Every structure is written in C-alpha cells, then in structure tokens.
Amino acid sequence: MSTLLFSLGRWSYRHPWRVLVAWLLLLGIAGGSVALFAKGTDNAFSIPGTEAEAGIQLLDRTFPEASGTSAQLVIVAAEGSRIDEAPYSDGIRDTISTLDGLDGILAVTSPFDELVDGLVSDDDRAAIIRLQFDGQAIDVPDGTKTALQDVAADLRADLPGGTQVAIGGDLFSMSMPALSLIEAAGVLIALFVLIVTFRSLSVAFFPLASALIGVGLAIALIFVSTAFATISSTTPMLAIMLGLAVGIDYALFIVARHQDQARAGMDPEESAARATGTAGSAVVFAGMTVLIALVGLAFANIPFLTTMGIAAAVAVAVAVLVAVTLTPAFLGFAKGRVAGWGHGRARAGARLRRRGTSAAEDAAAPAEDALADAELADAEPAEAEPADARTPARRPNRWVMLVTRHPIVTTIAVVVGLAVIAIPAASLRLALPNAGVQPVESEARQAYDLTAEHFGPGSNGPLIMAGSIVTSTDPLGLMADLKAEIERIPGVKEVALATPNATIDTGLIQIVPETAPDDPATAQLVRDLRAQHDRLLDEYGVDLKVTGFTAVGIDISDRLGAALVPFGIFVVGLSLILLMIVFRSIWVPIKAAAGYLLSVAASFGVVAAVFEWGWLADALNVTRTGPVISFMPIILMGVLFGLAMDYEVFLVSRMREDYVHLRRARRGRADRATAITAVRTGFTASARVVTAAAVIMFAVFAAFVPEGDSSIKPIALGLAVGIAVDAFLVRMTLVPAVMTLLGAKAWWMPAWLDRILPRFDIEGEAVEHERAHADWPEPSTTSPLVGEGVSLVVDGGRRRGDVSLFADASFRLEPGGTLLVTGDARSARAFVLTVAGRVEPTAGLLRVAGHLLPGRAAWVRAHVGVALLADAADPVAELRHALAGRARLVAIDGLDALSGADRDQAAALLRDAADRIRGRGAAITIVASAAAEGTALGILAEAHRPDVTPLALRTRSELPARPEVNA
Fold first, then answer.
1. Sequential DSSP letters for 59-84
2. CA 187 to mean position of chain CA atoms
C-alpha cells in the first residue's frame, strides 16, 4: 500500500493540473447530474418486519384513507369565547370547504363530526380539523403544504383578535435541515487552526480546498442517488459534517508530514511522495475503519439507517481519495514554498540536513534523536551508537513528561473523571423527532404546543389499531365492543374513532394516549396494547395490529436499542483486530478499545445532561428537552470509532516507529527505558498535528450545534464532545500513561498470532526500505532479476515450529538469461512464487522486473507470468497462459514434469515467446524449478536457451555456521 501511494503521490506532484482538473470535472459532472436526476430527500421512516409496518401495509390495502400521512389545523378561540359558536364555527366550516378542494387530501374531519370524539377541547375553547392525505409525507405536493399554511393564515386573519391558529401534525413533524452562517464558522476556525499549524497562509488552504471539493462531490453523488434510492434529509447533513472533518484532517496529516520533511531539507518532490506513502497509508487505514463502522450500521436492519451509513461512507471514501491525490497535487503547485514563516529552507537545511549520509541512516534518525532524550526520559541510556552531533534532539513536550512521570495518578484521574461525566447517560431516552423539538417560532411547533395544552400531550401522537373483521356479522357492534375494551387499558385517554371501512372488512381504532409521543409511557402503552392481542383474538376473532406514525417511531427506537450491543461488540472486536494488524501488539488494541468505550460513554453522558437534564440547554439553543433522535447512539458509536482510531493510529504509530528505530540503534535491546523514551518522542513528534486535527474536527462538529436541525444537533454535540474527550483525555493523556505502565510489554504479541495476521504497512516502512535501496544493486539497473541473501521461513505448526524453505539465496540474471533452481520440490515452488511476487520473502533483498520486493509485489505480479506445471491438469495450457501478454519474466515450477508431446510443445512455446519479445527489442527471462536437472536442461536446450545459471537452494540448517566475532 505505501509503495503504491508513494508512486501515486509522486505522479500527482508532477501533474498537479491534471489531478485538479480531473476532480473539478468530476464535481461538475456530478453537479449537472443532480440538476437532471435528483428527486429530493424523504423523511418517511419505515422499518420492515415490525408490527407497525405490517399494520400500515394492511391499511394501504383496505383502508387507504387512513394509511397516509396526516395533519391537523388547531384553532384556539380568544379568551372567554367558545369554539362552537359564531364566528368560530362559521369560519371552521368555511375552512373545511376550502380544504376539501386541495390536491392530495383524501379526507377532512370536522371537529363537530358526531362520529369522532376528542376534536373539541373539554373547555370548548379549542378545536382540531384533522386532514388525511394520499401517501406519505414525501408524496404530498409542496404546493399543497404551502396552500395549507395560506389557509391557516387566512383563517387567523378572519377570526377575532386573540385567536390562535396553527397547522401541524405528522406532515410537518420533520423539518428540512439547512446550512447557516454558524456552520460556516466551523470552517473559518479550521482555517485559523491550519494557519497556526503550518505558519503559512497558502499551505493552510490546501487541506481546506481539498476537503471542500471532496464534500461537494460526495453531496452531489448523494443527491443523484435519490433518483433510485430513498434518502432522508438528515443524510446530506451528516455527510457534510463527516466529509469536512475527515477531509481536512486527512489532508492535514499528509501536508504536515511533507512540511516537516521539507524543513529538514528533503527534495520537495521526494518529500511529497514520501508523505503520501507514509502519512497517506495511515490516512487510508483510518478511512477504512470509518468506512467499516459506517457500513456496520446495517446491523440495525433498518433500511433508512443503512442508507445513511452508506451515504456517509461515500463521503469518507471520497475524502480519502481526494487526500491522497489532490493534496500532493496542491503540493506540486507550491513546489518548495511550504516551510512556513520562520522556517526558511536555508535555515532548515543548516539545522537538520545530514550531509553525506545514506537513506538508511536518515531513516534511523528518529531513533538517534531519541537517544539524546534519554536523560529527559528519566531513564538510563542503553548502549547505542552515538547520535549524530549535527542533529538537534527533539525535546519531549512538558505535557507528556508530566503524564509519563505520574502514569498511575494520570490513569486513575482520567478513568474516574470520564466515568463521572458518563453518569447522565443512564437517563438517555430515544425517540424519533417530532414537531415538539422544532424551534418555537415554527408553526408546526406552535401547533404541537397548542394541541398539548388544550387536548393533552397524547393528541400529538395518536395510535391506530387495525385488523380484519371480515368474519363479523355485526361490524358496528364489534367496533363498539373493541372501543370499550381499549378504553379500559391504563394509559389510554380516549378512543377518538372506532369504525369499519367502507367495505366492512377492516376495522380501525384511533387511540389518544395520555402521554406525549416521545414519552416512555407511550412506548409502554404500545407494548400493553400488543399484549392484549391474543386475548382480543380469542374473544372477538380480530387480529389487531398497533400502528401509526408514533408506533413506527417506537418500533424503530426499540430496534435500534436492541442493535446497540451487537453493534458495539462488532466495533470493539473490529478495533482489536485492526489494531493488532497495525501495531503487532496485544495490549495496544485492548487499551485503544477501552479508551474508545470511555469516549463513547462520556459523549452519551454530555448529550443526556444537555437534552434530558437541560444543562446549558439555553446556551446551546436547545428549544425543548427530552428524548434525542433514536439513531444518535449507533451513528455516534460508528463515527467516533473511526475518528478515535485515526488519533490512535497517528499518535501510537509514531511511538512504535521511534521504538523500532531506537531498539535497532540499541542493537536489539528493548527495555523499559527504551519503551518510555519512544512514548515521549513519538508523542512529541505527532502531538502538534493530532492537536490541530482534533481542534478542527471539534470546530466543524460544534458549529452544527447552535443553529443545527433538531435531528443533527444531538449527533453533532455528541461527536464534538467525543472528539474532544477522545483526542485530549484518552489519546493524549491516558494512552501515554498506560503505555508507560506497560513499558516494552506494550509491543508484545504471541509469535503464532503474529504469523497468521496479515500485515498493513501503516508506518510506510516499505517506502523507507525502497528509498534506502533505490540504487541497489546499482543505479538504474537493467537486471530483470537479482537477489541477495533471500530467505523464506514459514510456520510449520506447533510441533514443527518455523520451517526454512530456503535461505541465503543470492543470484543475478541479465535480460534473456535463465535461472534453473533445484532442490526440494516444496522449496523450489516456494522460490518460484517468491520471485513472482506471490509470496513475501522473510529476509534479504530481491528486485524483480525493476521493482523491489515486498513493497512492489503488486507491480511484480502484473509483470511476471507464473506457470505451476507439476499439478496442472493441462500443463501446456498453463505455460501458454503464463507466456501470454507482455510479460518479460516468466517463473515456471516443475519444468521436469513434462514429457512426450507436452515437452515438445513447451519447448516450442518458449521459443515462440522469446522470438516475439525479441521482435520488440527485448528479451524474455525465465526462472524454472526442477527436481531432475538433466530433464529441465534438455527442454531449455530445445527451447534454444543454452545459457543457464544454476541455483541449488539450501535451507537454514544446511548453511555453514558463521564464525563468531569477538567484540
């Protein structure tokens, strides 16, 4: 990965205009597609497989006039007046006549209808006109919504002064999120932080510009997807938040690494490529963790939430792609002008450039610097090579010195403090948003409050029970009996309507609870009503289902609550596995996962304190305390997981990098002093960038709190708090403290686990390895195959341990040459697969087709043909496939297994391939393995390849003992 990104970064640096124009072109195409295909977002929440959804489907088939969305017009007469007297009664009747003619309205229920109860308040001062629509909220034309608001305004103007009129209900329960100038403040804060971090105005714009381009493209793609998918209005806002935050941070990490290297005197092009290969690898890994967590939202099995996770994942994926391509392109525009104020190239070169040293020595510089800090580490320096006197020591900052000198106190203080902050989380309640959380100036909020005041809170969220009554001989009597049964259930204020449909095959019961839609008592009432199912079915033969907008919201909240534990296990388990792969450690992942859980608990606690307890509610413009949006916890857990792993990777990877270099400089010694020094120097090297990244993310998320949509506000607050807690308390305080307590044990992993886990070059070691040996065996070598001390050791299981397949193999071939490998059949095949880039060597240097392994294995696999003849059903076809295309090097295993006609055809194929390649001015090189050397030589001779270089493979046990060297 790191070598691929290195090449990508260098290409982008060299062709900045191509990269920039390509991204702008993609942005333009996506923007044009929005204008052509976008259909708009949808706030109709559904959850397949639940009783509420099944009830809605039943009503769709048999009672369509009751299955769509609804609205209600609330009229409150002036003080001392009655709503059932003129002029109010006349105005209401005239308004009903007007409403009957509006597009999309199926039914208008008059408050004076004798068949309906509860639409006139007990004090006869308020009335509700109930409206039923054809389809869900998204199906209602915008013109109809506007007309409803105009009708309400006209009625308000016609009635006496002091009259209150407001339109609300399910149709208006969801507000459409919109950006404001407050959100833009987060971007300005991010820009200020970037300027301070880079000390350069032009460089500061690079992360911001790349993030804005990425966000614009992601949002355009999301709106285009509305042409064939249902996207909630919250989704684009979530994508904007995430896209901005991670887009700026990912570019920041790459630019910061480039600036440090440029200040050290590295060539700008080389620096940009290395920064993309090293910091870019961490960016890709961090992005992968966010992507996996967001896609993991599908655990809840709720379609709109799955879509939201996928859409947000698209924004993150675009941010990663933009960061690793457009960021080095911007650096290509700047060339060498990135050092920033007070860091001129001459000054940096005089201070940090190591004249006359090799790339390998440059790579060891962090370890040498760390040795100079041994005294500051309060540790006795181990034996090591002296540091370069011309290299200034990095002095650990005061914070990490304080933390690592008092690790036990620090650990206890952080854990206890976060546990206290998390206490309010126990009272966190969840529900779908309704008009009650909208701003007080919203007409829908006014209608909600008026309804609650004059009719009771339950009138804002009526429940519906529906079922088939086709077997009843007395449908009206049956509905009356069911009404009486339901009214006896605790929590039911009244049954407003109990009636069969027009075809008398489905019954509908409209229930008004005593409590508000988002009150836990209403959720309990839904459960109590469903608990009556079997009894009512036995007594009345009716299969009743509880449904309606409120019941759907309760089902969604229950489903999400049940999904939190498995999702948490998935996220924590994923973090353990991923971090084991990255850091080759057991304790580092455990510590990281525990820190993540502390951050999540603390963010839940702050959200509950603000939205449930009302702390700082006015300061944060929280218009009404109560339950938060039901998918807040699972989204916060998923997003915060990815972002927390970002900081863990960028901070701890530098600690590991210094630990590895320092241990190497100390000739393999890995004591406690070495580990603590690496913690301090690694923290010092990365703290500035991690701090800037955390402040930027906090600013972006926090900007969505004061004026944010009611659905986004708790998510934004939780993410802002989670970022601050995770970055500054967990990663930059708890992590160095725990790492200090663990010492060298922090990097321990069982050998068997280390062997089975894949490797992800998060620290860019392959790039450093490649640059250190860029001129090996000589600059611009033309040799297609050269190896020095190449070895391969595999896991032989518990009983056999490590098995050496071949060791210390050195060889070199010129174009057109042939290497004939002999030895054990298993070892010979392993060698063939190794030079073909299919197996990673465990030691030595190996360059194949101009590419250094293992970092360039992907390129080698694309340029080297492989033919495994010994076990092939059709060995000739296998060889023909390997020789096809433009491969100039072919690796063949089991050449001596051919006989008869197969042997002749193989020789002919090799001759033809050599002639074809020679016709293009090149030569084909062959690596062949054989147990019977004579047979293989005969086939090669027939193929006109008499110039053969033999290589007899040996295992480690067969090598001569190396003489001991006395110190």
1. HHHH-GGGTS-EEEEEEEPPTT--TT
2. 21
Hey, what are 489's tokens?
């259930």
* Domain shared by 145 and 270, yes or no: no
The number of beta carbons lying within 10 Å of the beta carbon of residue 212 is 18
Dist. CA 682–CA 400, nearest whole Å: 10
* Total tally of structural domains belonging to the chain: 4
Contact 138, 229 (CB under 8 A): no
Query: Would 516 be classed as within a structural domain?
Result: yes
Mark whether 186 and 256 lie in a shared domain. yes
CA 8 to chain centre: 23
pLDDT the model gives residue 166: 94
Residue 196 and residue 67 in one domain: no
| Residues pairing with 132 in the sheet | 70, 107
Q: Is residue 381 part of a domain?
A: no
Hey, what are 3's tokens? 């070598």
CA distances to 26, 34, 228 from 313, rounded to whole Å, are: 18, 19, 18
What is the DSSP code (8-state) at residue 775?
Answer: T
Instruction: Identify whether the C-beta of residue 647 lies closer than 8 Å to the C-beta of residue 450.
Output: no
Residue 798, exposed/middle/buried by CB under 10 A (0-12, 13-18, 19+)? exposed
Residue numbers of the chain with a pLDDT score lower than 70 = 42-46, 175-183, 340, 342-396, 667-670, 708-709, 761-764, 795-801, 919-922, 959-967
Same domain, 818 and 923: yes
Q: Comparing C-alpha atoms, which of 864, 589, 711, 634 is closest to residue 176?
A: 711
Full residue range of the structural domain in which residue 587 is found: 399-419+566-752
Q: What is the dihedral of CA 879, 880, 885, 886, to 10 degrees?
A: 50
pLDDT of residue 211: 92
User: In this structure, are residues 790 and 809 in contact, taking their beta carbons and an 8 Å threshold?
Assistant: yes
Q: How far apart are CA 739 and CA 653, in angstroms?
A: 13
Q: Using the CB atoms, write b or e for 830-851: b if 16+ within 10 Å.
A: bbbbbbbbebebbebbbbbbbb
Task: Answer yes or no: do 661 and 683 share one domain.
Answer: yes
For residue 826, give the nearest of 879, 870, 790, 860 by alpha carbon.
870
Q: What is the pLDDT of residue 381?
A: 38
Where is 955: in which H helix or E strand? Answer: none
Q: Give 580-614 pLDDT, tens digit per residue.
A: 888 888 999 999 999 999 999 999 999 999 999 98
Return the CATH number at 713.
Answer: 1.20.1640.10
- Say if 273 falls within a structural domain: yes
The answer to whether residue 262 is domain-embedded is yes
The alpha-carbon radius of gyration of the chain (Å, integer) is 35
Same domain as 213, residue 300:
yes
Q: Give the long-range contacts of residues 103-107, CB within 8 A, separation 24 or more.
A: 103/141, 103/143, 103/144, 104/133, 104/134, 104/135, 104/139, 104/140, 104/141, 104/144, 105/131, 105/132, 105/133, 105/134, 105/144, 106/64, 106/65, 106/68, 106/132, 106/133, 106/134, 107/65, 107/131, 107/132
Burial category of 926 from C-beta neighbours within 10 Å (exposed 0-12, middle 13-18, buried 19 and up): buried
